[in-house]
Amino acid sequence: MPTRRSLLALATGALAAPAIAQVRFPERPVRVICPWPAGGTTDLQMRALCEAAAKELGQPVVVENRPGASGTLGALALKQAPPDGYLLSQMPISVFRFPFMTERPAWDPLRDFTWIAHITGYLFGIVVRADSPFRTLADMIAWAKANPGRLTYGTPGAGTSLHITMEQLAEAAGVEFLHVPFRGWADNSAALLAGTVMVSADSSGWAPLVQEGRLRLLATWGAQRAKRFPDVPTLREQGYDIVSISPYGIAGPAGMDPAVVRILERAFLAAMDEPAHRAALERFDMEPMPLDHAAYTAEVARMVEREGAMVRRLGLRL
Hints:
The protein is α/β, with parallel strands linked by helices. It is built from twelve helices and eleven strands. Helix 3 (41-57) packs across helix 10 (258-271).
């Protein structure tokens, strides 16, 4: 994977070209949709990123929360927006899955968007209440085997990486879970703490509650253990060959001016190195994963193929 320094050098060189110099962009604030609730992991990371990008662009970069539909409302908005670069969106991996989960897809990931810059991925994990009888992941799986279809788990929505990975885990363990979708971590955690669901699978918004002793972390889903939770084993360490980080980036509508794309690409890649943004990544145990427009576009094609194959194999439908 190229370094941020090399990507910025390429972007800076592109900006020196005469075609770029003729573009006056942006001349007003840029809006970026965060398709998740305010106050969650993605929202806080995106606000730090957009504030840093605003310094590069010389115009405000305003975050708009549009939660719901498993993080795909941003994609729907881009499909209807003019390709002028003034409306962008965070694009979760559910954007690549949904077209394979319905008979009439509302968008085509390969044709309907301009992929500007890839940013990062999540730390995911499985948590239960501190008074739960499940002290380990093995306890949870054993209970699910003894009680088919009765173990309830919450996620931020159907088709999200949390939902898909929990179904992969169920398949690998030979058990059946009952999925309860929510709009984000706020609703998911409230249901868990109230006892409405037995287990929650979500990004690291659960970390403060784990550190306070109100929740227990049974497993993380990265390739290595999380820095803040070195005593908690990964899924792989517990016998399940599953790694899930749900990488994401920034996109705009299809048909954007390449000069505008390069300006935005440069701004967001530079913003990744701003101290406030690096602090946000560290706060949520998120790794920087920079890709420029060309590399991100190529990666999207690979992700669409992988996600489509997985949806078909698991038989998932909306």
